[in-house]
Amino acid sequence: MSAEATTPGAHSRRRGLPRIDLRRLGRAALLGPPSRDRLPDAMGHVADAHRAHHPDADLTVLRRAYVLAEASHRGQFRKSGEPYITHPLAVTLILAELGAETTTLTASLLHDTVEDTDVTLDQVRAEFGAEVCYLVDGVTKLEKVDYGAAAEPETFRKMLVATGNDVRVMSIKLADRLHNMRTLGVMRPEKQVRIAKVTRDVLIPLAERLGVQALKTELEDLVFAILHPEEYAHTRALIADNATAGDALAAISEDVRRVLREAGIAAEVLVRPRHFVSVHRSGRKRGELRGTDFGRLLVLVAEDADCYAVLGELHTCFTPVISEFKDFIAAPKFNLYQSLHTAVAGPDGAVAEVLIRTHQMHKVAEAGVVALGNPYASADGAEPQDGERADPTRPGWLSRLLEWQQSATDPDTFWTTLRADLAQDAEITVFRAEGGMLGLPVGASCVDAAYAQYGDTAHGCVGARVNGRLAPLSTVLGDGDTVQLLLDRDTASGPSPEWLDHARTPAARIAITGWLAAHPASEGLPAAAPRTPVPVSADRRGGANAVVDLPGATVRLAGCCTPVPPDAVTGFSVRGGVVTVHRRECRAVARMRALDRTPLAVSWADEPEYRVTLHAESFGRPRLLADLTEAIATAGAAIVAATVEPPSEQRVRHTYTLELPDAAGLPGLMRAMRDVPGVYDVSRAQHPATA
Questions:
Q1: Catalytically annotated residue among 115, 383, 609, 659
Q2: What single-letter DSSP state applies at residue 531?
């Protein structure tokens, strides 16, 4: 592949920050170590970029890091022919341009020394401190000779665990991969494809989740050129053929500047070209592209309030495209991104997309976690003590990833699951009824929420309440929902295989799969709660709290009418030696008699607990479910199962299966439920049932 084809993102790089000149750096590196009092010539680009973000930075430690890196890598060359030192220099420049602080740049200069030279981690620690040593260790690959085919997935596992403690580890890895992708043209085509696929499946999603858009967009273009060369060539030609497309946006930008100037709003209005992948996606979405589709307008202001002031002026003076409006300031994305998105139509009907943000928001939008500096230093700049290295910026997705990877001991399972997890590129926040929040991927269900909150204890989950309403575990949660998980008191119960159809998070899928594998005989069905043995005579069989005169028979209470003492009951023999017990007024009894089925005498045994199914008919209102369940609990009954049918004409039907300590309390329970405001009827279950 040509050198030109490996640098598709060059057109969109920021002005004033040219790409590092590897040949010049190579010549500078070959001149040998610098004098003790000055910065190496090869570090000039890095120093300028670093001082642009950190004017007071002490470059002494960078000089020492360069001296060690240059001396360690001396005599090593990259496949492109440049001295190897050009690679850590290029990686460091990438991070310096993004605004990384000195510690990150020091570690990036040394990131390959332990892996590729005789330098040890102990030497790095002694010379540069524990923090730099931790970052270097985090990005150091595991030896293939020790791990074989598992080296790559286990290296990523190691890096992710290190990232959980310090997000700067992944920042260095992303910059390292970006420079390697820029120079990938010297590799064999099959190796280019392999590296590009890993970049697409793992590194680009990580860059997106960490908010480092500047790295993510260029990585996307580089991967696009390798994996889809024909579509890339078409997009490149399309951009070249529309070289004057920026003129349309420039004209609109002048109108925007005039409107904001007249409104007294100080703002910087820029035209930002789209990168290759963005143009390609726009073409697939919109068909034929117009001049304004090749870029966006970026409006930068000083304060958050100014963003909304700009939005108001634009929507007043231009025709807004309402469907394109998004407010990521009031509701930031999970990767720290904040901005207002809108689109307006100019006088000629051309539509321009507009991004509105503060200068600080723009810095974070470009650099993500890199822009946060050192999140571990205290306000006075002191380093934290041991045991206080909790990352306040750790996002929810990273915490979930670190949790489930502990269960994925097999490298192949980890690698496959990691790619699947990273493919879920959006996140929601749900609130726990008892307090606290859960971060889950879009499309997550109550099953995912259960395992995120309770871990393996969620095996006993029997239902959930979503926004106060009873809901099945398959319910897909939305952003901002409140969820309460209901757990079975029977610790022997477990998930069913159907749960896998509703589980979206790796943690849930790994836990469910593990339980099913450990309980093959149960086929994943929850174990039934043990019942208290019923005393029976030698020629009688009892079931639940009913006894029937039929040797060897199994007694089962009918679900259609749920009889309890002292109901008048009768029984009928069905297949498999089972006797079903019905209330005498049950419609199933009449059907049995019509079929000439012989009724059997049934009596009640002395049982400590009874189950009954009740229907509550009510008018819909807030807190109805909470009031009903409180009335049931006050009456001393336990809810075994519950369902709520969708409202119909403002009426709601609740069905409860309840366990009573004494059947004599049933009338009082039903009265208590009827006394709940909004409930107009409570009745025993009575519906057709097959014998």
A1: 115
A2: P
Q: Work out the percent of the chain whose per-residue pLDDT is above 70.
A: 80
**Per-residue b or e along 109-143, where b marks 16 or more CB atoms closer than 10 Å to that residue's CB:** bbbbbbeebebeeebbbebbeebbbbbbbbbbbbe
Put simply, whether the predicted model's pTM sits higher than 0.85 gets the answer: no
Report the first-to-last Cα separation within the chain, whole angstroms.
Answer: 73
- The SS3 assignment for 669 reads helix
Cα separation, 294 vs 5, whole angstroms: 20
Alpha-carbon torsion (77, 82, 88, 91), positive or negative: negative
Tokens 């993004």 -> residue: 98
DSSP single-letter state for residue 203 = I
What the block records as the tokens of 504 is 């979206």
Q: Which of 338, 334, 236, 352 is nearest to 290 (CA)?
A: 352
Cross-strand pairs, 642: 656
Predicted confidence at residue 425, as pLDDT, reads: 62
Average pLDDT over residues 190-211: 90
Q: Which helix (H) or strand (E) holds 355?
A: strand 351-358
Q: How many CB atoms lie within 10 A of CB 182?
A: 21
Encoded tokens for 667: 């009338």
603 strand-pairing partners: 547
> Please, are residues 10 and 22 in contact by the beta-carbon 8 Å criterion?
no
**Helix axes 86-98 and 213-227, enclosed angle (nearest 10):** 130
CA 424 to chain centre: 6
Q: What is the pLDDT of residue 491?
A: 57
370: helix, coil or strand? helix
Q: Which of 238, 346, 218, 255 is nearest to 292 (CA)?
A: 346
Question: Three-state DSSP class for 89?
Answer: helix
Rounded CA separation 407/422 (Å): 17
Could you tell me the two tokens for 290? 């117009």
Which entry of 41, 70, 116, 293 is annotated as an active-site residue?
Answer: 116
Share of the chain above pLDDT 90, in %: 25
- pLDDT-derived band of residue 576, with 50, 70 and 90 as boundaries? low
116 is catalytic: yes
Alpha-carbon distance of 157 to 406, in angstroms, equals 10
pLDDT digits (tens, 9 = 90+) for 167-187: 889 899 999 999 999 988 888
Task: Decide: residue 526, CB within 10 A, 0-12 exposed, 13-18 middle, 19+ buried.
Answer: middle
The HSE-up count of residue 510 (CA atoms within 13 Å, CB side) is 22
Contact (Cβ atoms closer than 8 angstroms) between residue 542 and residue 597: no
| Alpha helices for 437-505 (secondary structure H) | 446-454, 499-502
Question: 83-118 pLDDT, tens per residue?
Answer: 899 999 999 999 999 999 999 999 999 999 999 888
